[in-house]
Write a structure and sequence with these properties.
It is built from 22 helices and eight strands. By secondary structure, the chain is of the alpha/beta class. Strand 7 (224-229), helix 6 (241-244) and strand 8 form a beta-alpha-beta unit. It is elongated. Residues 1-22, 537-577 and 715-753 have low confidence and may be disordered.
Length: 753
Amino acid sequence: MGEAVYPNNDMPTLPTTPTTIGSSLIPVINKLQDILASSGTELSDISVPQVAVVGSQSSGKSSVLEALVGRDFLPRGCDICTRRPLVLMLENRHPNSDDDRSEWGEFRHLPGRRFYNFSQICREIQAETERVAGCNKGVSDNQIRLKISSPNVLNMTLIDLPGITKVPVGDQPSDIEARIRTMIMAHIKNENCIILAVSPANSDLATSDALQIAKLADPTGSRTVGVITKLDIMDRGTNACNFLLGRVVPLKLGYIGVVNRSQEDINKSRSIQEALAYEKRFFLDHPVYNGVSDRCGIPQLAKKLNQILEEHIRRDLPCLKAELNSRTRAAMKELQIYGEIVESKAEQRAILLDILRGYSDDFSAMIDGKSQDMSTKELCGGARIHYFFQSMFVKHLEEMDPCECLTDEDIAYALKNSSGLRNVLFVPEVPFEVLVRRQIARLSDPCHQCLRVVYDELIKISQACESTGLKRFPSLRRHINEVIQKFLDAAAKPAEAMIKNLIEMEMDYINSSHPSFIGGNKAVELAVQQMRSSKGNCPQSNNERPVLPDGSSSTRTWVISSIFGSRASSIGSPAIQSPGETLHEVKHMSSTTQLTEPPSILRPLEMSENEATEIIVTKLLVQSYFDIVRKNIQDLVPKAIMHFLVNHTKRNLHNTLIQILYGENLFEELLQEQDEVVARRKHTQEMLHVLRQAVKTLDEVGSDVESLHRTTNSGADASTRLTSFPDITNGRSSSSSLSSSSKHRARKLRNVE
């Protein structure tokens, strides 16, 4: 630590060249936070140690901050002054004897502009506050970020928050107190935030607003430092010693008492150096406070905050390194998505070929079930197509009734109409073929619907394919979609024609010789059994023959060639007269009746047993042949769709994309990036650069911590400055930090009490 400015070194002052463990890390983190705050990216949630200053209005917060910086730069007044959170990043820099302007400030909203006059910094803070919060005491949670670079400050981040107020003034809303408390809590609830709770000594410290809100965010008091201001204006005969010793409201990090400049001192332009000298004399001359000198004065506060910062970095270094490494990997992965800037023709050719190949590979991988991004929540890709074939198309065909929309009346009309002017003597093949063709035609719609479903699924697969780099070029994405659409349309046409041909082939030739076809004899046998079962009679013996009307038994069996025959005349019927004789007799007969006009629609008479049997036989034949055709369609239609559409697309998609899209006249149009992608790439590159610097700095700091730890354990005195800090874990001073005179004064104070 640098030389103290006070004589006799009884009370250390602000260090001139602090070199703590965290001194090399915080500037990088400050830079990182500054970039994140300007871009509003997800990295803004990185948790780093910072100090938030909270307190009631006019509690002396601004005076404490100015004393830590050593400069007047904050707006002053009797009313609320801090109306927007001020993020104050203090950066220690080595003094340069050749540079008269060794201290300067820079605002984030004015990048590149340095303020060497701190009065101008004050005016800029006030102007920026009024720009957002208005000119009439309004408040806003929009931060002002100010970096101050000086050889006389410690590396740390301080946040000056608006003071807690009770009564609205000016343009302040009626719930101003609740809003300010919410704003404060949003900052101090971070576990890495050190809370600097500022309370004036001339008020009731037990009911301090700062201590109350700090306790809400930090119930154990493990990260709260109490600051008691204005000790010099307490009533005579009173002191804040019990608070400084943590006897009233205990805090693990303890308390520090300070003396602020009064408004009269500020009006008279009394410098901070003069105020520090006055503060030193006040504590040395005070009969009570001189016994607790390690808890009094701005220099002690600076030293305590410096040590707390070092302890936080030492404790949180592994987690912070892991977080930064994780974010670095994420930034690298994001940068890979954006890719490199494409400039030359050769680069354009290479990247276009790579994207088209990757797209085709991803398309085939999704169909074959080899995609790296395979879903575990639902069926996708080829699995969906297989599901459509087996669980939808095949199942739907299985559930189709072969005789649906085919009633007994329809079959009866078909049988009658097929006989023409006479009764049929043989198998009525015409009605059977007419009826079975009608049923086969019903298979056409499900087959074409299956083709449409697979087509739509291939479109979805093409849209789901996002090969590396494709997101960068929306024009290329649109052109690929157009090519895929036209390609699948062209491939679907032969598939559709094949399905149509399959249905027409089955309808065009009825193969009644198919080995799986039931055949006429079997159909008659089953029909007779159904008729007997429906009548409830005992089945006729296989040796008995059907009896004709004259009592004789028929010499014919129930075979397919006779069941549709005419009603044969009985044996022994009279000889048939010649047509001429019959007509002559009819002419000489007297007319006794006249025929009525036939109806427009003629229906057959009541159905006979033979006709019912004929209907059953026809149904059995239709059902048997429909089952044969259905199995063929269930097998051949998926094969046709796979051959003409799916596999054809897999085989020829890549070549088609190359033929249509790979042309030098299209490079500029296809590889045109969006402005947003260009901006995101640049931002990610900057972020990655900062993250890598932060990781590198953390690695160096980690080595320093390990070296310091080994030196401390070996008893070396290399860290005398650090070990001379007061013990902040229990609010009491360590034996090495108190001089013998301080110990004597402390014993004297306890005797007085």
